[in-house]
Write a structure and sequence with these properties.
411 residues, Flavocytochrome C3, Chain A, domain 2, two-stranded antiparallel ribbon, globular
Length: 411
């Protein structure tokens, strides 16, 4: 399959020696091999460890655990169905099964655009190569329902000819360029986080007009990273506000809402681990005793001796106790913010019912939008309390304060 088969030891040495990696999706050349089982022929250890992500199959219904979410996301797909993430092997299955993607009856129906496949399968870079990026981002989610057959795997992160880490989604390179990061300056260590950032980042669907080869005018919903102003929640919010962008209008409060996706990379950048040069792979894909990188991507706490304790000079029980305490603080602040936001939405709905005018409500709805953006941004990245506990608590505290301000203004 591969033009170049590199022995494992040579590959590890190359990883240390060469600071710059490919950062753009391949165009032309060999067809993208999206079937991870084909990569197994040359890299069985990595494949077998990746296959273990199938063991992370538990489905946790977050709406049942936190019923406030149904109010916070009223009128949006997440209010119908929201489960905690599972292993990478279930990416496609979860995307297909969720109520958010509906039940399309043909390639032109269904509530979601094709972009909703983007982070779920190595068949995405294959289709971008075959159809072109703009065509890929045009149309409804069901359009590629018969093409997406392989869950997140080898071709999502590696160049299949050289095994280099590579960014297989073109919009990532554009996002970095918009943030002022030049491709030539990206190091190997940074790539060990950026291949994860392809999916674990905040994004929005940018409506883009284009014309195909036949002269047909079309509209693509292009995945776009809002990094033009910077990587913080506030900088992204200013960008969205400048576009007057909204993901949906809240069904109860009528606020123009933002839905955070999964800004794990951006929040991690504010944390001490990232700032000291620790990459995503260092913790989530530690080296095994046999010398290869573990592709069973899970919480570092499930493999704490190989991950955390390589740097932290304390016992496993001590470290777990510290992390548990930090998570409890986050959970406490999160619930306080959620409760206040839910009440703000309900009270805004009551204000409309009592005859409030748009002029009276405009500033208040902006406060609700801003408050929920900070709450959602902090929790949508899942491991935020671990990656950057200080930033997470700051965002939740800011969210709580803004939600309470909105409630006072409503009164």
């Amino acid at each position: 399959m591969f033009k170049l088969k590199i022995p494992l030891l040579t590959l590890l040495l190359m990883t240390l020696m060469f600071p710059v990696c490919a950062v753009a999706a391949d165009k032309g050349g060999a067809a993208v091999e999206s079937r991870s089982e084909k990569w197994k022929e040359d890299y069985p250890d990595q494949y077998n460890s990746w296959f273990k992500t199938r063991s992370n199959d538990k489905i946790d219904d977050m709406l049942a655990e936190y019923p406030q979410l149904a109010v916070l996301w009223a009128g949006y797909g997440f209010a119908k169905d929201y489960n905690a993430p599972r292993g990478h092997a279930y990416a496609l299955q979860s995307n297909i099964n969720t109520l958010r993607t509906g039940a399309p009856v043909d390639q032109k129906t269904g509530p979601m655009p094709t972009a909703c496949w983007t982070c779920k399968s190595p068949d995405v870079p294959r289709m971008i190569q075959e159809d072109g990026e703009m065509e890929y981002f045009t149309g409804k989610w069901a359009k590629y329902g018969d093409e997406m057959a392989n869950a997140i795997g080898c071709a999502d992160c590696h160049n299949q000819e050289t095994m280099e880490l590579t960014l297989t989604r073109p919009f990532v390179a554009r996002g970095l360029e918009a943030a002022g990061i030049k491709k030539k300056d990206i190091t190997q260590n940074e790539m060990r986080s950026l291949v994860c950032a392809q999916c674990h980042s905040e994004y929005y669907f940018k409506k883009t007009e284009w014309t195909d080869d036949k002269g047909t005018k079309k509209t693509a919903a292009v995945v776009t990273f809002p990094w033009e102003n910077g990587f913080t929640a506030e900088e992204m919010e200013r960008l969205y506000d400048s576009y007057e962008f909204k993901d949906w209008t809240h069904k109860i409060s009528k606020a123009p809402m933002l839905k955070a996706q999964h800004p794990g990379y951006e929040i991690a950048k504010t944390g001490v681990h990232y700032q000291r040069g620790v990459s995503c792979a260092d913790c989530h894909m530690p080296a095994t005793k046999d010398g290869y990188t573990d592709h069973h991507i899970v919480s570092p706490l499930e493999n704490i001796k190989a991950s955390c304790l390589q740097c932290h000079d304390e016992t496993e029980s001590q470290l777990k106790a510290t992390i548990k305490a930090k998570k409890q603080r986050k959970e406490h602040m999160m619930v306080l913010a959620m409760d206040s936001l839910a009440k703000a939405h309900l009270e805004a709905g009551k204000a409309w019912e009592l005859g409030a005018t748009e002029a009276e409500m405009k500033e208040i709805l902006g406060m609700i939008r801003s408050a929920q953006w900070r709450w959602d941004y902090s929790i949508a990245s899942h491991g935020s309390f671990f990656h950057a506990p200080g930033e997470t608590l700051r965002l939740l505290g800011d969210s709580l304060g803004k939600a309470q301000d909105a409630r006072i203004a409503l009164v």
